[in-house]
Amino acid sequence: MAITLSKGQKVSLTKGNPGLKHIVVGLGWDTNKYDGGFDFDLDSAAFLLDENGKVNADTDFIFYNNLKHPSEAVEHLGDNRTGDGDGDDEEILVDFSKMPDRIEKIAVTVTIYEAKERRQNFGQVNNSYVRVVNSDNEEELLRYDLGEEFSIETAIVVCEIYRHNGEWKFSAVGSGFEGGLEALCRSYGLNV
Questions:
Q1: pLDDT per position as a tens digit, 168-180
Q2: In terms of Cα–Cα distance, which of 130, 22, 114 is closest to 75?
Q3: Among candidate residues 171, 140, 176, the one with its CA nearest the CA of residue 156
Q4: Of 141, 107, 104, which Cα lies nearest the Cα of 18?
Q5: Which of 36, 37, 136, 160 is the most exposed place for a label (fewest CB within 10 A)?
Q6: Distance between CA atoms of 99 and 95, rounded to whole angstroms?
């Protein structure tokens, strides 16, 4: 049975699941009805961070234009441009057995494509969640529903998956801010 987390909670992924090597990070959302003339296009991404909380190279940023890390430890399964339908809208595969030693944390984010130009923000998005599934047996390990606390934000750090004392842990972050993907990239050490 999956654990349901609240903002700020942390849980070990590998302690209760010895031998866990492959997970799917599934992200889902719905958009509110609005008449802005543009469709919503939400994009998930993963930033592979070192002990300083920064990426070492552009290849440590996994998103719709760079789907797979060179180590094959993290792979984005592609951009869903509508968010329509039930279930996960976008998925990121993680293989702990291939994770480079220098990677201490994976920050999983969601941004709104061209949010400023389209006058869109996360106040217009609901039913947002992230879930972690053991991809070897399809067991859902945990779920974090982000709630409706956002208004003007255009980027969200949904969660972090990080190493601690030889274990992989999950942190339900849920922190939003303005500036979209560009602001996220800068905060993680990428020049855009």
A1: 999 999 999 888 8
A2: 22
A3: 176
A4: 141
A5: 37
A6: 7
The model's pTM: 0.93
Q: 89-120: per-residue pLDDT in tens? A: 899 999 999 999 999 999 999 998 889 888 88
CA distance 125 to 19: 36
Rounded CA separation 54/112 (Å): 22
Question: Could you say which DSSP state residue 2 is in?
Answer: P
Q: Which two tokens stand for residue 127?
A: 């039913």
In the three-class reduction of DSSP (H, G, I as helix; E, B as strand; rest coil), residue 64 is classed as coil
Closest to 16 (Cα-Cα) out of 139, 182, 186: 139
Q: Two tokens at 160?
A: 């972090």
List the strands of the sheet with 125-134, edge to edge: 3-5, 139-145, 125-134, 22-31, 90-95, 74-76
> What is the rounded CA–CA span in Å between residue 190 and residue 192?
6
Place of tokens 């949010």: 115
* Rounded-to-10 torsion of CA 10, 98, 19, 7: 10
Identify residue 13 by its one-letter amino acid code.
L
Widest distance between CA atoms in the chain: 49
Token pair for 152: 């003007």
What six digits make up the tokens of 155? 């980027």
CA atoms within 13 A on the CB side of 188: 28
